[in-house]
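User: Here's a protein and a ligand (iron/sulfur cluster). What would the complex look like?
Assistant: Let me lay out the input and then the predicted complex.
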Amino acid sequence: MSAGSEQLGFDLLDDAFAAPALHRVTPARLATWDSCPRRFRMLYLDRPAPARGGAWAHTTLGAVVHLALRALFDLPPRSRTPAAAAALVDRNWSDEGFRDAAQIAEYRERAREWLAAVATGPDGDDEPLALERRVVAPVGSLLVEGRVDRIDDRDGRAVIVDYKTGRGVPDDGRARDSQALALYAMATEHVLRRPCRRVELHHVPTGEVAAWEHDDASLRAHRERAEAQAADSAAAAAQLEAGGGPEALFPVRTGPQCGTCTVRRNCPAGRAAVEEPQPWALLAP
Ligand code: SF4
């Protein structure tokens, strides 16, 4: 793999797998390209990388809960008590992005309660197949790379579990439409060599689970869309490297995403389009 291809943000991998070469992608990179090509360029291509904004409380909370859940399911089932779950929140806690001490105390306590509810809930005794599993696998013309929150075993079939901690409670349509979950399902099927069609979004604050059972057609649609995004972003990056104009190749796409965009301080169009919310504004109510 050449240093130049690494700098493009997706690698053409032609040594570990048979020809034709595969585009190495992560679902996050594809989603960034889809939401705003300028943001894609700033995050993955521009060097030196532009300065990023400060911490967001909802991001901090999400990271804490993910770490605590991973540690919880690492424990033997008999040790997954509410007290142990709450202690794991404390062990992984961070104050970054919160408004003040009162808000920190409120959300820390909420996170303790969420984890305690998971420990005593229907999943509490499950033995996942994998936690925070890094998967790297060919999917069509792509080499999909990413980290899956949890992979469950249900009657010999793998199930992708993704944790959510934000304001919105996801519905089944969101699970169906998630490109990341579909790509992870296809990659996991390859890596674990067992069927993987079901994807689930677990909303930790409410305990709600949104789910979708993919079939060949829905997975093919996700794969083809991802392949088109990878091809388009690779073509734009190649033209940029050849001297093309960055603004035309990576156009601005303003929208709600500008509010929390990590590179908005370098993007006048995004700042003009959307006001920046307070760092704690997207916490679950
Ligand atoms: S602020 Fe908006 S328009 Fe600017 S890079 Fe970010 S997402 Fe794109």
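Summary: Residues 216-241 form the longest helix (26 residues).
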